[in-house]
């Protein structure tokens, strides 16, 4: 199977499994999405979705957010972890959005990356999901699967993103990054992985990964 055939197989399989793609983080507009994605760093979407309603009930826009102190924000979001850094980031970026963007979330990755506590992945998720601008945010699931599927060398997430953008059609990026995330969670997790349920890796997987899997099963 050529690399092009592998890519087509991945796209077709994911489309069949996920014709409708749910957005993992609950939000109602670009600002609440930005805050939710920022909070999801080193946490789970389930935990974030439990906490954001408590925060957004008090402040779901930058103008209300800066009425809170950093400590008040931190107290609400504490269960998601890294709360000191995230609370400072939420407070700081809310001020910048008001001062520089009239309270609106900018639509470019470059501008988003200038905001406190907003990295490349967070910025990519926001432009893709809030503004429908093609991006390919790479999280741990995508990084793991792209390596398992022999579509990247697994060197780092930067390389994985470059390879994903090179291999997959641009008009599918926003769908694919979510489909791969759901697939990774359901069929190809880091722990408790059952290759027999993971049709993509079983079909096109990297030989060394498959060998390691079967070795571990002996």
UniProtKB/TrEMBL annotation:
Family: Belongs to the Nth/MutY family.
Function statement: DNA repair enzyme that has both DNA N-glycosylase activity and AP-lyase activity. The DNA N-glycosylase activity releases various damaged pyrimidines from DNA by cleaving the N-glycosidic bond, leaving an AP (apurinic/apyrimidinic) site. The AP-lyase activity cleaves the phosphodiester bond 3' to the AP site by a beta-elimination, leaving a 3'-terminal unsaturated sugar and a product with a terminal 5'-phosphate.
Coiled-coil region(s): none
InterPro entries: DNA_glycosylase, HhH-GPD_domain, HhH_base_excis_C, Nth
Keywords, ordered alphabetically: 4Fe-4S, DNA damage, DNA repair, DNA-binding, Endonuclease, Glycosidase, Hydrolase, Iron, Iron-sulfur, Lyase, Metal-binding, Nuclease
ATP-binding listed as a keyword: no
One example of a Gene Ontology biological process annotation: base-excision repair, AP site formation
Recorded catalytic activity of this chain's protein: 2'-deoxyribonucleotide-(2'-deoxyribose 5'-phosphate)-2'-deoxyribonucleotide-DNA = a 3'-end 2'-deoxyribonucleotide-(2,3-dehydro-2,3-deoxyribose 5'-phosphate)-DNA + a 5'-end 5'-phospho-2'-deoxyribonucleoside-DNA + H(+)
Lineage top rank: taxon: Bacteria
Span of the signal peptide: none
Cofactors demanded by this protein: [4Fe-4S] cluster
Co-factor binding comment: Binds 1 [4Fe-4S] cluster.
Domain called HhH-GPD: residue spans: 39-186
Pfam families named among the record's database cross-references: HhH-GPD
CDD domains: ENDO3c
Organism: Leeuwenhoekiella marinoflava
EC identifiers of the protein: 4.2.99.18
GO molecular function, one term: metal ion binding
HAMAP family in UniProt: Nth
EC class: lyase
Protein name listed in UniProt: Endonuclease III
């Amino acid at each position: 199977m050529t690399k092009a055939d592998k890519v087509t197989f991945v796209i077709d399989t994911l489309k069949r499994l996920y014709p409708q793609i749910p957005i993992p983080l609950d939000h109602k507009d670009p600002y609440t999405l930005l805050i939710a994605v920022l909070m999801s760093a080193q946490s789970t979407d389930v935990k974030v979705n439990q906490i954001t309603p408590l925060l957004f009930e008090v402040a779901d826009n930058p103008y209300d957010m800066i009425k809170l102190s950093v400590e008040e924000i931190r107290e609400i979001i504490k269960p998601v972890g890294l709360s000191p850094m995230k609370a400072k980031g939420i407070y700081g970026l809310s001020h910048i959005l008001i001062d520089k963007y009239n309270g609106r979330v900018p639509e470019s990755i470059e501008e988003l990356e200038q905001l406190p506590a907003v990295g490349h992945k967070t910025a990519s998720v926001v432009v893709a999901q809030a503004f429908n601008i093609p991006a390919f945010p790479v999280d741990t699931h995508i990084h793991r699967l792209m390596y398992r599927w022999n579509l990247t060398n697994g060197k780092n997430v930067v390389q994985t993103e470059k390879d994903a953008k090179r291999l997959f059609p641009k008009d599918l990026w926003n769908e694919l990054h979510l489909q791969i995330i759901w697939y990774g969670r359901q069929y190809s997790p880091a722990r408790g992985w059952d290759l027999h349920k993971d049709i993509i890796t079983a079909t096109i997987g990297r030989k060394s990964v498959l060998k390691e899997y079967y070795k571990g099963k002996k």
